[in-house]
Design goal:
The structure holds 2 protein chains of 2 kinds. By secondary structure, chain A is of the alpha/beta class. Chain A has helices at about 45-55, 90-95, 110-120, 125-140, 155-170, 185-200, 215-220, 235-240, 245-255; strands at about 10-15, 20-30, 35-40, 60-65, 70, 75, 80-85, 95-100, 175-180, 205-210, 220-225, 230-235. The longest helix of chain A has 16 residues, at about 185-200. By secondary structure, chain B is mainly α. Chain B has one domain (about 5-240): MetI-like (MetI-like fold), CATH 1.10.3720. Chain B contains 10 helices and no strands. Chain B has helices at about 5-10, 15-45, 50-65, 70-85, 95-120, 125-130, 135-165, 180-190, 190-220, 230-240. In chain B, helix 2 (about 15-45) runs antiparallel to helix 8, helix 3 packs across helix 5 and helix 8 runs antiparallel to helix 9 (about 190-220). Chain B is flat. The model of chain B is unreliable at about 240-250 (pLDDT under 50). The chains are: A alpha/beta, B mainly alpha.
Chain lengths: ~260, ~250
Amino acid sequence: MNVEQPFLSVRNAHKAYGDVEVLHGIDLDVAQGTTTVVLGPSGSGKSTILRCMALLEPLSEGTMRLAGELHGMREDSKGRIVPVEENKLWEQRQHLGMVFQRFNLFPHMTVEHNVSLALRRTAGLNKHEARDRAIQQLTRVGLGAFVTRFPAELSGGQQQRVAIARALALKPKIMFFDEPTSALDPELVQEVLDVMEELAHEGMTMVTVTHEMSFAKHVADEVIFMDEGEVVERRPPEEFFDDPQHGRTKKFLAHLAK
Amino acid sequence: MTLDLQIFIDALFSRVFLEGALIAVALAVLSLAGAAVLGFVMALLRDSRIAALRTFAAGYIWFFRAIPTLLQLLFTWNALPQLFPALRENWFSPFLAALIALIINESAYVAEIVRAGLLSIDDGQREAGRAVGLKPGAIIRWILLPQAIRVSLPPMGNELINMLKLTSLASVISLQELLTVTAQQVSLTFAFVELYLAAAVYYLVIVSIFTLIQRRLERNYEWTSRKVSSTPMGAITRAIRLPSLTGGNK
């Protein structure tokens, strides 16, 4: 792939709920193998754009492409670009990884079953293949000893690592993290960030909405700052933190420093 | 006080009482099983994205909850054969008529129980299923259904006990269930106290067994790795291919 050509590109993304528009034309590029951190005050639309990119919500307007192909969209018979219907989106979603703020593990399944469910029911692996891959991914996030446990028996940090393993098991082309550590007790945040940092070093393409500034500073290749449904700044982290250009960025950073 | 213990014991162990009880249990269990399936479908339709389906399910629930069960029984047994000559054949038995009427009636109530169960499931569950690429049907089967069942089990226990008692209404369509045979025996012997007591004992025993089964089922839905999965109900649950959610993975 040409380095100049972005892996994921979003153009003129608008999102409205009824009459309220929350995204006002977002342009966003993610290069393959990079980590992008999206920052912004609450209500800035950062989670919304992430959820749209993860194909959990359709855009109201705009286009998205992943590896050159239309992403969550298709051309209809008249050549217009329209969203893919909900009951057909699963096909594209199985190549994406999504990690939620509140883990969203399936409480009625063992940890292993949480990870292997989609492998069996969508990816078409048999029971043993799915189990092997689940255990492999759980070992990767340091939870090889917990495969027979149920989610309620794990700490928040462990649950989030299971959720990461669940996303990884599908061998995603790109991973999205929606405030992955915001629901965790402070002492459990680092174990999740460590796993994410390792993924970044392994070359996973990642887009993360987070409030963890140290992660943004040390792991991100690019920082995107959003405010009021727009991208305000998009720069490498050292420039972003040391030399913010926009007033809104400065205000946001000053607020964090307090 | 006159209580003839012999009449009581004879009635308790008599063939007609036993058969009446078995018919009542079979009707109650089969009706609820049928109503569970139909009610689950209605619950899904009730919150469907398609407006026509939502309206249909809402109308169905409204209609069959409003009409008295007794009227539905009488209608199914007496009126349906007038409308559909095929139902005048011998195979359309009182048991079958009662089963159809009770399934349809009860499914309207079960739909609301299951709907409450579905509503209790966090949106994040459905979302996580979508995020890993599960198809809509797979999300229902593997994520929503097991969690809805757990929430629905206690009220469904209530419904099963209710169903057992509703089976006695089928006496009006000459089904030989427990209370019908009791009344018949009473009209022969006038041993009110003994025979009513015998019937009461049957109901007590049956409800006790129902309660026990409910407790076992609930234990199967505890979702921890501590408990043993080799309980008899665990085996039954797996055998009838309900989702096996017990500790073992095999």
